[in-house]
Design goal:
Blueprint lengths: L2 H20 L5 H4 L10 E3 L8 E5 L2 E5 L4 E2 L10 E2 L2 E5 L4 E11 L6 E10 L12 E11 L7 E6 L3 E7 L5 E7 L2 E7 L5 E8 L1 H4 L3 E10 L7 E9 L2 E2 L3
Parallel strand pairs: 4-5
Antiparallel strand pairs: 1-6, 2-3, 3-16, 6-15, 7-12, 7-16, 8-9, 8-15, 9-10, 10-11, 12-13, 13-14, 16-17
Length: 241
Amino acid sequence: MTKTTDTNHSILCLLPALLLLCGCLVNPAIFKKGAFATDDWETWTSWNDAYGSHNVSGAGLAYRLGENQDDTHDIPFDGRSPGLLLSRTLAGRSWRVEVRANLQVPAGGLKRFSFGIWLGSDYTRPSLGSASSVLKLLAQRQNGPSAEDDIFTVSAPPLKNSPVKIPLAAKALRFEKSGSFFTISYSLDNKEFKQVLNAESAEAAAAASQKFIIGGLAEGDPRGALAEFTSLKINNQETLR
């Protein structure tokens, strides 16, 4: 075998790993996309289908954190593995998404639920750390690792990375798009909404993919952390019941 042939062979052996790292290679065991037979969500499986779970019933959608799951990476990182992501596709230049959720986040160790809007390239796993995303409108309910980290925040990375705190008692979140303008609002009574964040992005307005997403992160045992989504209205139309 010639030196050139050996070099080419080495490159070919490394190619799958390089493609996986850049997100170009889809491992069906990790990134399987498709709705479960019992619901109409896009289901992006976790690493080895072992991190996070959900079920849909007449009461809505329940999402449970798994031990050491991660919603910010697409490969194992820092002791955590990619967790279950759920998404629903949005369409149009303007929309309104209103969500109500009961978020149970016990103290002890870092636990966090993330939900909101992901805008970016099509056919891409909508993780929070995906390089294919051009804008995210996020609501994140976190507890731990310290008592000071019992918080509820909204943000719009990469345009507005600094999270804005909202009351822990917030009962509903509203995400809106009008052309290239995006806003996040919250409500304490499911009636009156207060806008707390806005962003403008022509690139996000033209994104090939617009999704409402649900995910989460846990360091160690999530201690029964549970998110119960009781209402998801898209353009004033209820989609959970």
